[in-house]
Design brief:
Helix content is 32%, strand content 23%. It folds into 3 domains: 3-54 and 101-162 and 285-356, FAD/NAD(P)-binding domain (3-Layer(bba) Sandwich); 167-282, 3-Layer(bba) Sandwich (FAD/NAD(P)-binding domain); 367-470, Enolase-like, domain 1, CATH 3.30.390. By secondary structure, the chain is α/β, with parallel strands linked by helices.
Amino acid sequence: MDDVSSEVAGRAAQRVVVVGGGPGGYESALVAAHLGADVTVVDRDGVGGAAVLTDCVPSKTLISTADFMSRFFAAAGLGVKLAESPEPGEVARADMPTVNERVKSLAAAQSADIAARLERDGVTVVRGTGRLDGPERVVVEGADGTTQTLDADVVLVSTGARPRELASAMPDGERILTWQQVYDVPELPEHVVVVGSGVTGAEFAHAYLGLGCEVTLVSSRDRVLPGEDPDAAAVIEDVFKRRGMNVLGRSRAESVVRDGDGVLVTLTDGRTVSASHCVMAVGSVPNTEDVGLASAGVALSSSGHVQVDSVSRTTARGVYAAGDCTGVLPLASVAAMQGRTAMSHALGDAVAPLNLRAVAANIFTDPEIATVGWSAPALDEAGIGYEAVMLPLATNPRAKMQNVRDGFVKLFSRSGSGVVLGGVVVAPRASELIFPVALAVQTKLTVDQVAASFTVYPSMSGSIAEAARQLHARPS
């Protein structure tokens, strides 16, 4: 056997243990299995993790239901007349038990699909809680109290995160809720207060508004979505207010308590808001306690996140980490890429370091906000010369046909070369429209190359090509 064959055979014998079955975990397991490793995933709650069971999949399913309902309210503007409804003034109504059942069944089905894929690819799934016993061993405590020890050449930690809880607003699962508890509310809330105007808060505020609830959004900053493109955030806040949402800017919740059959939210300035329910969206906490990380030599940040490099290595040899427990970017797509990168590196396959400047992200409000690459503030801070153009969707012919009036396409290109540096799309299904911009950023296309590509007429994507055309720089 030659040296190369011996090396491959050595890799095939490696034992990989993945602690946590979320996107970072199951994606890394699939890569390891494809590279010939003996792979075991230790999972406590169900493969897919919070992303599939209690976070991304359920929340976006709920939002899809709200978006579908909004079509009924917009139908009149398109000339569609709906039949008389049972109650005067009622266009559509959400039946929450049915909505919740569909949300949870869809999440369970997605988890089952992932489990079937893992089994088909030869990955062993062990149900239980995993804890590192040094860098090369994982101890699993099963639900029945039994324990087993798994020896490993490579360990990947993907234990995720959980909603942050405040002592003055402790969730009770009935009226004061985290975003993971909303799918057990039996009836459509009359009035929901959402505390926190980041991505999670904005998405749930949008969802409940679309379902027909009265919504109050408590934002501690001067605008919603303070970490996003200012023009995009301004569009969303304007849409929220036009549709009847009560947005309390520069307000901070001091406490949330049960008040009979409802809740009482007290703000730091003394104002109070009474409602039927409150959803707390004030960040998350990494699940890194009691995992044996410190004793295995894995360093944590002051926030409790696992410290990793660009290929997801921790400070312990042979131990990698991926997903929300690392605090890199709280996105399922980033967790999955971290997991794939980690396992490719660990098993000697070709790998490129994680490029955060190429990450496409989306906020599932209506309209959606999709971003990729550099933002204007980041470019300014880095001192990079750039050109920018923003085209409102109101002038796009397809948008007019679909009665879309809010949104825009924004592109950034490097001065001189015209290389696409980033972009923002605010539109229905912006999550789909951002892909050509992400391709341009990833492959360093110029605006002229983007502009020279055909788009369908009429289409929303035509605005991306038009923005690129407007960024063309004539030679001096």
